[in-house]
């Protein structure tokens, strides 16, 4: 059996396991100025991506017209499952958002618009049918100002501030997710820091499920989480240059990190189709170890961004809420190399200020290995994956003060 086929089977098993009745798969996808009938040549590509991911709710950015929503619903989503529906289109300044959901999984409650200085941010509220009728999840879709430079960073920060003001007014324990194309080049950017800052009101604080701070732009260290651009060649508009930016995110509230009730599964967070092997390349160049060739081609032709997905484990509401964690910074406590690897992986640790656990999980959330680390530990630890199946694993360094995770790829 070939390596690529083995990984496809692994991903299919992961997808089938996560897509249970007690889970909700969330996806965000910038679909590159989608207009409707004028972009029918891309509809089959979007459909193929949806068919592969099998999401339950989807936020899109760069929707141009109401016709675009109708076309995507009729010719992409309803071709995959017959229970898809769409929220009402709101025509704001510049490009807009769209929301699609499976009526067998969630009940649509409401939508509203948060204006910013450039594009509107949309709030969509749903009630998962697997939970009690009081449970609500708010999903926010946004597209922040593009391009580098101080002025553009400030505009992104202003847009994030308009959103954060609204999040700060939500009740304690609220379940919410913020997703979309944030156009962030580094975790040091003011917009990212503002969204993850516990001050002045921790109720609106957001968390990055994979906690991978750093300089994402054009860095091979973050090749596995880049979302733009899946194209080197120029065609049909959009960005080119290959995979070299982490522009697309799903951030979550404190309540969605609390395992007492519904919570996010960080190991399921992925940039769809990113196998970590296409840095500065098109997503369909050569072999893609994350998806079949047909899906890699669909991602290449559909848009100039990759979708991002994550799963929620649904459980009826509890009372405990996880205390806010520290805001992410550019400091990394754990680094893994080489990545990809076979069969030995080196985990490099900076000095620890508190005892911690080093754990490895597979993508089904099963614990592969665990060891206790004492305060002051700073050394290289070699992990032997001989006898393990090829695929992705999550290396997690965790204590009461921090929680950092790195996705690694075992190849054979």
Structure description:
With 412 residues, this protein is α+β, with helices and mostly antiparallel strands. It is built from six helices and 19 strands. The protein has helices spanning 3-18, 43-53, 66-77, 150-167, 190-196, 293-302, and strands spanning 23-34, 57-63, 84-86, 96-102, 106-114, 121-128, 137-143, 175-181, 206-207, 248-253, 263-271, 308-313, 334-337, 344-349, 356-362, 367-373, 380-384, 391-398, 403-410. It has a six-stranded mixed beta sheet with strand order 3-4-2-1-12-11, with helices on one face. A hairpin with an 8-residue loop joins strand 6 and strand 7 (137-143). The longest helix has 18 residues, at 150-167. The model is unreliable at 1-21 and 319-331 (pLDDT under 50).
Key traits:
six-stranded mixed beta sheet; globular; alpha+beta; disordered N terminus; 412 residues
Structural class: alpha+beta
Order of helices and strands: HEHEHEEEEEHEHEEEHEEEEEEEE
- What is the CA-atom radius of gyration, in angstroms? 20 Å
Instruction: Kindly state the percentage of residues in helix.
Output: 10-25%
Major sheet description: 6 strands, mixed
**Average pLDDT rating:** 88
Calculate the terminal CA-CA distance, rounded to whole Å: 11 Å
Strand content: 25-35%
The count of helical stretches stands at 6
How would you sum up the global shape? globular
Number of strands: 19
Which stretches are low in confidence, meaning pLDDT under 50 for 5 or more residues running? 1-21, 319-331
Instruction: Please state how the strands of the largest beta sheet are arranged side by side.
Output: 3-4-2-1-12-11
């Amino acid at each position: 059996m070939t390596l690529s086929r083995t990984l496809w089977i692994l991903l299919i098993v992961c997808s089938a396991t996560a897509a249970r009745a007690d889970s909700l798969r969330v996806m965000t996808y910038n679909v590159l100025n989608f207009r409707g009938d004028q972009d029918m040549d891309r509809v089959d590509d979007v459909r193929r991506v949806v068919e592969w991911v099998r999401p339950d709710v989807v936020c899109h950015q760069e929707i141009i017209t109401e016709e675009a929503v109708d076309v995507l619903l009729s010719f992409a989503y309803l071709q995959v499952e017959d229970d898809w529906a769409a929220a009402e289109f709101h025509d704001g300044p510049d490009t807009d958002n769209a929301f699609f959901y499976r009526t067998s999984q969630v009940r649509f409650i409401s939508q509203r618009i948060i204006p910013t200085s450039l594009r509107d941010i949309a709030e969509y509220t749903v009630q998962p049918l697997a939970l009690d009728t009081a449970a609500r999840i708010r999903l926010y879709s946004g597209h922040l100002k593009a391009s580098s430079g101080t002025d553009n960073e400030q505009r992104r920060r202003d847009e994030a501030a308009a959103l954060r003001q609204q999040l700060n007014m939500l009740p304690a324990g609220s379940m919410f997710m913020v997703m979309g194309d944030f156009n962030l080049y580094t975790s040091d950017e003011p917009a990212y820091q503002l969204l993850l800052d516990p001050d002045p009101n921790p109720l609106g604080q957001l968390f990055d499920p994979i906690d991978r701070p750093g300089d994402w732009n054009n860095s091979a260290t973050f090749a596995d989480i880049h979302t733009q651009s899946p194209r080197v060649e120029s065609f049909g508009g959009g960005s080119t240059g290959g995979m070299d930016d982490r522009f697309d995110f799903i951030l979550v509230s404190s309540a969605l990190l609390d395992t007492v009730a519904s919570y996010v599964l960080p190991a399921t967070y992925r940039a769809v189709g990113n196998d970590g092997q296409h840095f500065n390349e098109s997503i369909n160049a050569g072999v893609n170890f994350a998806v079949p060739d047909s899906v890699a081609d669909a991602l290449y032709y559909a848009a100039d961004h990759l979708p991002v997905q994550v799963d929620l484990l649904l459980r009826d509401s509890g009372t405990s809420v996880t205390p806010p964690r520290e805001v992410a910074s550019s400091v990394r406590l754990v680094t893994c190399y080489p990545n990809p690897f076979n069969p030995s992986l080196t985990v490099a640790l900076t000095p620890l200020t508190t005892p911690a656990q080093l754990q490895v999980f597979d993508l089904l959330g099963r614990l592969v290995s665990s060891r206790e680390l004492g305060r002051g530990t700073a050394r290289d630890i070699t992990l032997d994956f001989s006898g393990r199946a090829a695929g992705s694993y999550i290396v997690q360094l965790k204590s009461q003060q921090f929680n950092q995770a790195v996705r690694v790829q075992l190849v054979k």
